[in-house]
Specification:
heterodimer; A: about 90 residues; alpha+beta; two-stranded antiparallel ribbon; about 50% helix; B: about 200 residues; Lipocalin; 11 strands; about 15% helix; globular
């Protein structure tokens, strides 16, 4: 049980870190709409079109790592209470 | 009627037609018209756009100083990349989009017009309404008149002229009662607005 929690915590941290890195390692807030600059050829107006996709930011990374840390801390607390008495 | 008289009448009709002001509609079916807003606070920088631009401006290209009209931006069209930030922005503590669905600039006076061919610069004074608060402001605007270019833009479906307006100006959110003095470390008081819009005057 304790070992499983520790593995789960490490796995969570790894998945969160890998997802954040794979989806662009964005160092701002999480985005669900990514701005793309375009220019109208006739009026030469620059405008922004939004590509609706999920880009995790530092808040996603932080929340994921805090979650993993909490699971890990919980596993250590649990190990203290379940230590066999000598 | 003598041919010379016919010619004079035709020529004066053409002059009168040219001098007629045109009404440019800024509801752009291509969705290109936009207003970019930037807030640069010590702890956070917020950038976003608003695309729900409508309104009309009546302008005589030969005499742009007499232009009248208003530009309206739908508050709900304000977009930032972060969904939670957008929810807060449009919520009742900030812009309260449900109660104040429109951001309006109504032209009152145009001065210091500098015209060169189809381009011009001017100072535009008008009433700017945001968050239900109206204030008179003066902004600098650059205008480009593109006669006959509507056909190119609409793929030949419509014929007519285009009017492109660009302006960058700064307002203070405290002037418009948007959480004055609150969260200044993350949401700056100064808001830079960059307007880039094109209006069409179709010819029948």
């Amino acid at each position: 049980m304790i070992r499983s929690l520790q593995i789960l915590a490490l796995l969570c941290a790894f998945v969160v870190l890998a997802a954040w890195a794979a989806l662009g390692a964005h160092r701002g807030w999480t985005m669900t709409a990514v701005p793309i600059k375009k220019t109208d050829p006739i009026t030469e107006i620059e405008f922004v079109e939004y590509d609706h996709r999920f880009v995790p930011g530092v808040d996603f990374l932080g929340a994921g790592l805090i979650g993993s840390g909490t699971i890990l801390a919980f596993s250590f607390i649990l190990s203290k209470f379940t230590k066999p008495k000598s | 009627m003598k041919p010379i008289h016919t010619l004079i009448i035709a020529a004066s009709s053409l002059t009168a037609l040219h001098a007629e002001p045109l009404t440019f509609d800024f509801k752009d079916p291509k969705g290109v018209n936009n207003v970019v807003f930037k807030l640069d606070a010590p702890l956070e920088s917020i950038n976003g756009t608003a695309s729900g631009v409508t309104g009309t401006i009546t302008l005589d290209p030969a005499n742009p100083g007499t232009a009248t009209g208003k530009i309206v931006v739908a508050t709900e069209s304000l977009t930032v990349s972060n969904p939670l930030m957008r929810e807060h922005l449009l919520g009742e503590k900030w812009l309260n989009a449900k109660v104040n669905p429109e951001i309006i600039f109504e032209i009152k006076k145009i001065s210091d017009v500098e015209k060169k061919d189809t381009k011009g610069e001017a100072k535009v004074s008008g009433t700017f309404t945001l968050n239900g608060v109206s204030k008179d402001i003066t902004v600098e605007a650059r205008v480009t008149y593109l006669p006959g270019k509507l056909g190119d833009r609409s793929g030949g479906k419509m014929q007519g002229d285009l009017l492109v307006i660009r302006s960058e100006f700064e307002i203070k959110r405290s002037d418009y009662n948007i959480q004055p003095g609150q969260n200044l470390d993350k949401v700056s008081d100064e808001i830079t607005l960059s307007l880039s819009i094109a209006g069409a005057a179709p010819k029948s």
